[in-house]
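Translate structure to sequence.
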């Protein structure tokens, strides 16, 4: 049996530049509290899409919003206090 093999070069050759740098990974790590809070808020919104919210749902939504605001405040304060103003 003959194998058919493409004789073309890959369209996007793999290079070392495709991986995130250490600085980019550090920035992502600094943003993780905000990312986690946004995911939590999204979970609450998805849960509320298919039903009418009751008092506990409204409380859960408010808590998720407040956690997101707190996380944004902490990350913004950390970026201002960091040397050079970068997180």
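Result:
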């Amino acid at each position: 049996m003959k194998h058919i093999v493409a004789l073309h070069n890959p369209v996007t050759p793999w290079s070392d530049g495709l991986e995130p740098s250490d600085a980019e990974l550090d920035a992502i790590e600094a943003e993780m509290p905000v990312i986690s809070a946004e995911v939590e808020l999204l979970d609450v919104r998805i849960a509320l899409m298919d039903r009418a919210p009751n008092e506990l749902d409204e409380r859960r939504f408010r808590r998720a919003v407040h956690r997101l605001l707190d996380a944004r405040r902490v990350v913004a304060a950390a970026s201002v206090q960091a040397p050079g103003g970068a997180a």
